[in-house]
Design a protein that fits this description.
Distance between the termini: 33 Å
Strand order of the largest sheet: 1-2-3-4
Helix content: 25-40%
Shape: globular
Oligomer: single chain
CATH class of the largest domain: Alpha Beta
Largest sheet: 4 strands, mixed
Strand content: 15-25%
């Protein structure tokens, strides 16, 4: 396959205090897509191959590099950068996570995500208008030492030459939402893979492949999604309470449910970063409704489905809407469950291989 490279003149295109940089990835030659498409047609014309594992074989036959966009931006933080500056840089660059570079080790040691922002607010918030010293003054390395203590783990990453199947397995097994693609030879971080990006890549080519019979089955028939002990909040729930639920339940979004049980909104981890954008993090006693008034114009919206819709319909809806999950509702619009991108990739790619990475 074709290869791109990091443009040396753009390695430090944008810096925050000398500790944050933005990398621009050069596009591969235009022939890349043609080669990929030809390879796809050749790979899936054998009639004797089973249709049920077609998506698994597609993922195994393509490398992570194939999924890297022709032009992308990657923000990298040095661990000596102040936490507050780092989160403001995430907002300014419109990204949700950044690899962390430790100069002493000359390697990537972790990721800074919105989850870290939530954990800091949850741990150190006292009361309205009381400055959160730890957010204002701590460096990333200090926060990591305090939060991780003795539980430091190697950064989960993947080589650009690894298969996309391996990326799917790693994302789901490790219960992570972002997987950095790091070149093992140069040590360069090339991209951050997500469930959304992988599913969108697959969707580009599904029309050229035989359709597995399970795509016509419903969510209920396939047992896809979570339907018990669903975490949710109400419109008047204080933000600090919502953050506590994020931390305790380890979920990425909370449906907002009214008194009758109907889903009226959704509060995701990504919405929390607006607290930094609006400098509202010193008052977390405000309600979810008040906080959502400051939501950006890029709000994904509450996308819903029911248990009797087919997997094909669900995949098409979630990809077109570019959301991370669908809220499953009944005929009255009341909450029943959640279907995540992780659930969908497990069903499309891993289940046909007899692998249940969600419970491994």
């Amino acid at each position: 396959m074709c290869r791109g490279k990091i443009l040396p003149e753009t390695k430090a295109a944008e810096k925050v205090g000398g500790d944050c940089c933005t990398l621009n990835i050069a596009p591969p030659p235009n022939s890349c897509l043609n080669v990929l498409f030809f390879h796809l047609l050749v790979s899936f014309t054998a009639v004797e191959q089973s249709e049920s594992d077609i998506y698994m074989r597609f993922m195994k036959s393509h490398k992570c590099y194939d999924i890297v966009p022709t032009s992308s931006k990657l923000v990298v933080f040095d661990t000596t950068l102040q936490v507050k500056k780092a989160f403001f840089a995430l907002v300014a660059n419109g990204v949700r996570a950044a690899p962390l570079w430790e100069t002493k080790k000359q390697s990537f040691v972790g990721m800074l995500t919105i989850t870290d922002f939530i954990n800091i607010l949850h741990r150190y918030y006292k009361s309205p208008m009381v400055q959160i010293y730890e957010l204002e003054e701590h460096k990333i390395e200090t926060w990591r030492e305090l939060y991780l203590q003795e539980t430091f783990k190697p950064l989960v990453n993947i080589s650009p030459d690894a298969s996309i199947f391996d990326a799917v397995y790693s994302l789901i097994k490790n219960k992570i939402h972002r997987l950095p693609v790091i070149d093992p030879v140069s040590g360069n971080a090339l991209y951050i893979l997500t469930h959304k990006r992988i599913l969108k890549f697959l969707q580009l080519f599904v029309c050229e492949m035989p359709k597995p019979a399970f795509m016509k089955q419903t969510l209920e028939e396939l047992s896809i999604g979570t339907y018990s002990n669903i975490a949710f909040i109400h419109p008047n729930t204080p933000i600090i309470k919502a953050l506590s639920i994020f931390v305790e339940r380890r979920v990425s979004a909370l449906p907002v449910v009214d008194e009758s049980g109907k889903v009226v909104d959704i509060y995701s981890k990504f919405d929390v970063i607006n607290l930094a954008a609006e400098k509202m993090y010193n008052n977390l006693d405000i309600s979810v409704t008040q906080a959502l008034m400051h939501r950006s114009q890029y709000f994904e919206g509450v996308m819903k489905c029911n248990r009797f819709e087919t997997l094909e319909t669900i995949v098409d809806r979630i990809v077109k809407a570019e959301v991370h999950r669908l809220v499953v509702v009944d005929e009255n619009g009341s909450i029943m469950g959640i279907v995540s991108l992780s659930d969908i990739l497990q069903a499309l790619v891993l289940n046909p291989a007899g692998i249940n990475a969600q419970h491994s």
